[in-house]
Design goal:
alpha/beta, Nucleotidyltransferase, domain 5, 311 residues, six-stranded mixed beta sheet
């Protein structure tokens, strides 16, 4: 039996799927983040995450992880493929190995054809599109220092800044201050911000506080509502930037979204309104999650077109 592997490696976690030659998903597995490969610590995290998620998928498929040999494998990696191909080729055996971006595999699974555009908003954010001529374009995805607008980390950063401004007397009152202080076990916003600068509060842990912002917005906190609406607007701008690079005005484009930020109903609805204001855009939930998009890309790399099915 020929087997295929798809892996989505991100800032929040790494997910793998193993499929057979008919498109049946045999097993799936999850592990920790694998977005960095530079330095010994980053490489060790990547290797551990890949081994763990592929091992889990193999166990669920009743396959011996140590003896796995894939016909084709595709990895979509946050932060890009640079420096990761050599590492991954040492971890798995595959006749064909493709290493690309997490955005590429998210788009591959989002629409039936793999064409259109997708906005990804997890810990960070970016958008990617591919048109019928095979041209691709991206916008955003420049990390927490210079980009990632509308991502979970950015939302918490805006909320934390608002909490600090309230505490220091130069910002409006917001329930975010009390919520974030309680969630971080801090005595005040000052201590909270200092904790966010320590190794114990890595970006993914900070980003995991984003649902508190959504909760406060749902309770009509004006500051939280502004943060959520601003995030939706910035994500819609990423979609518009990709569309403008690849399609003519009014041309029909399938748009999709992916990532934990879109679990906010308020943000998603605002995002939908803004995206569909552009003539020709139609927004829908992705058909498959990114790790299954990676699996589809593994099949495509082998010249195979399949319909995925579980069980």
């Amino acid at each position: 039996m020929k087997i295929f592997l798809g892996v989505d490696g991100g800032q929040s976690g790494t997910v793998a799927a193993i499929g057979d030659e008919t498109g049946r998903v045999l097993g799936e597995g999850e592990a920790g983040p694998s977005n960095h490969a530079a330095g010994a610590e980053g490489r060790a995290k990547l290797e551990r995450a890949v081994r763990d998620c592929v091992g889990q998928a193999a166990a669920k498929a009743n396959l011996d992880a140590a003896a796995l040999e894939f016909e084709s494998a595709c990895f979509g990696m946050s932060g890009g493929p640079e420096g990761k191909h050599a590492i991954l080729s040492g971890l798995i055996r595959a006749a064909r190995l493709r290493v690309t971006t997490d955005a590429a595999v998210a788009l591959a699974g989002a629409t039936r054809s793999g064409l259109g555009a997708i906005v990804i908003a997890g810990t960070g954010s970016m958008a990617m599109g591919r048109n019928g001529e095979g041209r691709a374009a991206r916008a955003g995805g420049w990390g927490y220092v210079f980009g990632d607008e509308g991502g979970a980390f950015d939302m918490v950063r805006q909320a934390a800044r608002a909490a600090l401004r309230m505490e220091e007397g130069w910002g409006p009152e917001t329930s975010l201050r009390a919520m974030l202080i309680e969630a971080t076990g801090s005595v005040d916003a000052n201590q909270m911000l200092h904790r966010f600068y320590t190794p114990e509060w890595e970006r993914s842990r900070v980003a995991a506080l984003a649902p508190l912002v959504d909760r406060a917005a749902g309770e009509a906190d004006a500051v939280a509502m502004h943060v959520v609406n601003q995030a939706a607007q910035e994500l819609a701008q990423l979609a518009a930037a990709v569309r403008g690079q690849l399609w003519k005005p009014g041309e029909a484009v399938e748009m999709a979204y992916s990532g934990g930020v879109f679990e906010s109903r308020m943000l998603l609805e605002r995002f939908r309104i803004l995206v569909e204001m552009e003539a020709g855009n139609k927004l829908a939930a992705p058909q498959h999650p990114p790790h299954l998009g990676a699996l589809l890309e593994a099949y495509r790399a082998a010249g195979m077109g399949v319909e995925l099915r579980r069980g």
